[in-house]
Amino acid sequence: MHGLFTSLDAPSFNALLRRCLFIGLTSVAGSALAAAEIQFNTDILDLNDRSNIDLSQFSRSGFILPGTYSMAVEINAQTLPEQKVAFHPPDDDPKGSEACLSPELAAQLGLKDEKAAALDWWRGGECLNISSLPGMEVTGDLSTSTLYISVPQAYLQYTAANWDPPARWDEGVPGLLLDYNLTAQSIHDRDGSSRNDISGNGSLGANLGPWRLRADWQGRADDETVNRQRSMEWSRIYAYRALPALQARLTLGEDYLYSDLFDSFRFTGASLNSDDSQLPPNLRGYAPEVVGVAKTNARVIISQQGRVLYSALVAAGPFRIQDLNDAVSGSLDVRIEEQDGSVQTFKVESASVPYLTRPGSVRYKLAAGRPSRLHNGSAGSVFGTGEFSWGISNGWSLYGGGITDNHYRALSMGIGRDLLAFGAVSFDVTRARTELRDETLSGNSYRLSYSKTFAEFDSQVTFAGYRFSEKDFLSMSEYLDASISPGPVGGSKSLYSATFNKQFRDAGLSIYLNYSNQSYWDRPDSERWNLSLARYFDVGSVKNMSLSLNLFRNQERDQSNSNGVYVSLSLPLGRSGTLTTGASRAQNKNSYSARFSDRIDERNNYQLAASDNSVSGYLSHVGDSADVDVSASVEKGNHRSFSLSARGGGTLTSSGGAFHRSGSMGGTRLMLDTGDVPDVPVRGHGSPTRTNAFGKAVISDLSSYLRTAASVDLENLPANVEATRSVTQLTLTEGAIGYRTLDVIAGEKAMAVLRLPDGSAPPFGATVKNTRQQETGIVNDAGSVYLSGIQPGDRMTVSWGGSERCGIRLPAALPADGLTSTLDLLCHAVSTDNAQSAPASTHMPDDMEKKSS
Asked: What is the SS3 assignment for 664-718?
C-alpha cells in the first residue's frame, strides 16, 4: 500500500482521496430510508468551491426519476436480459416513483397459475400492483442498471438450482449455423500400399423464432491403392420446435421413432412427443453409454441405421463415451478403426429405464408418416403410432400404446411401480399381428425392467431388463426388413441387458459392469460384456496411484468375436503428468505398453506411448475456433499412420458471427457480444474462449432448458480493457442461438481536467459517458476526473442535474502515460432547454435522452 501512495503525485493522490470520499457518500446515502431526504454536510469535503456541487442524485435514497430505463432484471438472484423498465409516480404519492412491472415482465416471474390469475394492476392494466403479492419486493438500482425483484418461493412454479420454469425460457435470436466434425487418416504399409481417407458429419441449420431447421450430413472418401470410394449424403432434413405449454416437441420431416415401447426406425412425417429434457433434471431419462478399449490411437464411430451419431479420435486404452443424447434409443452400431488398419465392431442396446410418470401427469408420444431408409427411399405404407404413461398415484403408473399400418398392428400395455427404497420396476406385454406375403404371424413379447440408484452406497444398477419374444412376434423394424428382403423372417427371441456401477470410497475401489445378450430364433446369439475395476491407493510419498483391470467380450451374430483383457498401473509424475504401464491380450495376441500423458496448459494435453512393436503420439488442442486432435504411430516392420481430427462450427446472426468449437451438431449455443472489443476472454461451458476481431464469441454445446452462466474472465483481461457488467445467465430452448451483451470498456486511462467555456468547471459528482452511454468517469473537485476506456479522437458527454450539459473531444494523440500526465479538455455546452433542477440520476431515462439530443 505504501508503494501505491508513493507512486502517485500530489494531485493524483488528492483526486484518489476525493473519489474515495465520494464513494463513501454514496454508501451513506444508500443506507438511509428510501423516502427520506438526505442532507449532506459538504464541510467535510476538501473542495475549493463548495457552491459548485451536484449531489442531488444521492439526496433521496432509492429514488429514481420517473421515466423509462434500460435495466437488467434480477428475479430471486437470477438475471434476465436487459429490457425497458418504466418508473411512474404512484397514485398516492405524486412525488414518489415506483417501478412498473408490465404484463410481459410479470409473465417472466414464473408464478403459479392461481397466483397469476389473482394479480392486480394499475395505470389501466399497464403495471402490476405489487401489493397483490404480499411479501414481494421491487427495488431499482441505477448504479448497476438493475431492477431487483424478490418473490416468495411459495408463489412460484417448480424451480431448481439450475432449472427455470418455462416463463423464463429464451428462444434465442434468428441465425444460421454450420457445425462439422472431420477426421482424416493416412496409413502406409511396408509393402508399398497406402490408404488415405477422410470422413465427416455435421449439421447445417437455421433458426427463426421457436423453429429450428436442420439438415444433417455425412460423408466419406477412401483412397486406397487399388480401390477408391466416395459418398456424401444428407442423412436427415427436418424442422422442430418446442411447445412449452405441452412440455412437448413437434418435429416435421425425416426423423427416427423415439419410443419407450416400440423399436426405432426411420420415417418421414410428423411427431409430437412429451419432451423429457423440458422437465426438471431429477425427472429426466438416461442417455446410453458406450465403453470399450482401443488398442491404438483410434477413430470411434457410433451410428444407428446408417446415420452417424458420434465420431471422434480417442487415445490408446480404455474409453467411455457418455455424451450421447438421451433421446437415442434402440440398437447402436459401434465401429473402432485402429491406426494399424484393424477394425472392431459391436452393438450396444440402449434399453430404456422403467416408464414412470409423476402422479396426475400424462406423458405421450405421437407420430405418423411413411417408413424410409437412408439410401433406398420409402420402405412401407403410411403408419401411425401413439403411446402414453399416466401417473395413477404416488407409486403406480399405467402405460401403453399402439402402432399400425396396412399390414402390421401392435398393441402394448404395461404397469410401473415405484418401490421407493428398492428402486423402480415395470412390466409390459406387446402383441403384434403381421400380414407378410402369403402368411399371417401373431405373437407376444414380454418385458421386465428395473432401475435403482443406491445413493447411500454410491452405486447404481440399471437392469433394463429382460425381454422375451415369441417366434411369430415381429417388431415394426423386423417387419419392414422382412417386407423387402426375402428369406427367414424369424426375429428376436430374448434380450438381457444390465449395467452396474459401484464406488467403494473408503477402499478407493470402483466397479463398472455392462452386459447384454441378444438371442434369435433362427440366427446365432450375440453377446457383449465389459467389466472395469479400478483401485486407487498411495505408496509412501507417491499419492493417487491406480491399478485398473478391463475385461471385455464381443460376440456378434456374424460370428466375429473380439475378446480381451487389459491391465494397467498408473502413477502421477510431476505436477499433472501420469505414467501408465499396461499389458493386454486380444485375438490371442499379447502386447505391452507404456504411456505418458500430461497437460501442457488449459488448452493442450498430449500422450506419448510405446509398446513392444510400436510408438505413437497423441495431441489434443482446445482452440477458440475448433478442437483439433492429432495422432501418429509407427509399427515396426508393418506400417506408419497419421490422423487429424477437427470439430467446430460457425454461427451467424444479424448482430454478427463467429467461428467456434462445437461438439454437439446443431445444438444449443450462446453468442456473447462485447461491443466490438476484440480478444476479451470469456468463460461458459467448458474451456474459455476469446472474442474475435468483431467482439463476438460463441459458447456451444449448452444444455437445453438448464440455466447457463457466462462471464468475462476478469483475471485474464488485457490491460486496456475493463468490464462493468461481466456476468450473464439464461435458459435456452433446444437448438436456440442465445445472444447476450457484456458491458466492456476498452481504451486507455488518463487523468483530465474539464473546463467550461466560461472558465468554470463542471460540478463535483457530474458523470462522463462515452458514445455507447457507458460511464467512464465521475468529476471530482475543480473539474478533475479519472477517465477510462478512452480512444484518440473520441467524443464524450458530461451530465449533471438530470441531463447532458456539455461534450468533450479527446485529442488525436493521447499521452504515453495518462496517469502521470493530465489532459486539459474544454467541455462545449449542449442545449440546456431541458435542463432541470429535479433530482438527478447517473442514468437518464430514455425519454429524457431523446429530448436532450
From this structure: CCCCEEEEEECCCCCCCEEECCCCCEECCCCCEEEEEEECCCCEEEEEECHHHCC
As to burial, measured by CB atoms within 10 angstroms (0-12 exposed, 13-18 middle, 19+ buried), residue 186 is middle
Strands (E), 174-210: 175-189, 194-208
pLDDT of residue 20 exceeding 80, the answer is: no
Contacts made by residues 237-240, CB under 8 angstroms, sequence distance 24+:
238/213, 238/214, 239/211, 239/212, 239/213, 239/214, 240/211, 240/212, 240/214, 240/734, 240/735
**pLDDT tens digit sequence for 397-451:** 899 999 999 899 999 999 988 776 677 888 999 999 998 878 898 999 999 888 7
Per-residue pLDDT band for 238 (boundaries 50, 70, 90) equals very high
**Class of 167-234+628-743 in CATH:** mainly beta
Domains 1-61+747-853 and 67-157 belong to one CATH topology? no
Question: CA-CA distance, 608 to 611, in Å (whole number)?
Answer: 11
> What is the DSSP track for 245-257?
GGTEEEEEEEEE-
Can you tell me the distance from the alpha carbon of 807 to that of 809, in angstroms, rounded to the nearest whole number? 7
**Could you give the CA distance from residue 625 to residue 137 in angstroms, rounded to a whole number?**
44
Name the CA radius of gyration of the chain, rounded.
Answer: 33
Contact between residue 145 and residue 163 where contact means Cβ atoms under 8 Å apart: no
Please, are residues 756 and 694 in contact by the beta-carbon 8 Å criterion?
no
Pairwise CA distance, residues 123 & 138, whole Å = 17
C-alpha 374/C-alpha 265 separation (Å) is 11
Tell me how far apart the alpha carbons of residues 789 and 775 are, in angstroms, rounded to a whole number: 9
Q: Report how far residue 335's alpha carbon sits from residue 311's, in angstroms, rounded to the nearest whole number.
A: 10
d(CA 152, CA 110): 11
Structural domain boundaries in the chain: 1-61+747-853, 67-157, 167-234+628-743
d(CA 594, CA 51): 80
Q: In 10 A of CB 316, how many CB atoms?
A: 26
Homologous superfamily of the 67-157 domain (CATH): PapC, N-terminal domain (3.10.20.410)
Q: Are residues 210 and 171 in contact, defined by beta-carbon separation less than 8 angstroms?
A: yes
pLDDT band at 605; cut points 50, 70, 90: very high
Q: Which three cell numbers stand for residue 624?
A: 477458440
Residue 839 pLDDT level (bands cut at 50, 70, 90): very low
Number of helical H runs and strand E runs in the chain: 6, 57
Cα atoms in the Cβ-side hemisphere of radius 13 Å centred on 688: 16
Opening angle at CA 719, ends 714 and 720, nearest 5: 105
Per the DSSP assignment, residues forming a β-bridge with 753 are 784, 824
Nearest C-alpha neighbor of 735 from the set 277, 336, 338, 319: 277
Torsion, Cα 25 26 28 34, to 10 degrees, reads 140
Beta strands in 455-576 (DSSP E): 459-469, 492-504, 509-520, 526-539, 542-555, 561-573
What the block records as the C-alpha cell of 737 is: 442461438
Report residue 774 CA to chain centroid gap. Answer: 30
Whether a cis peptide bond, with omega within 30° of 0, leads into 465 is: yes
pLDDT tens digits, residue range 268-306?
Answer: 999 999 887 887 765 555 555 677 778 777 888 888 767
Written out in words, the top-level CATH class of the domain with range 1-61+747-853 is mainly beta
Single-letter code of the amino acid located at 740:
R
d(CA 31, CA 2): 31
CB 768 within 8 A of CB 738: no
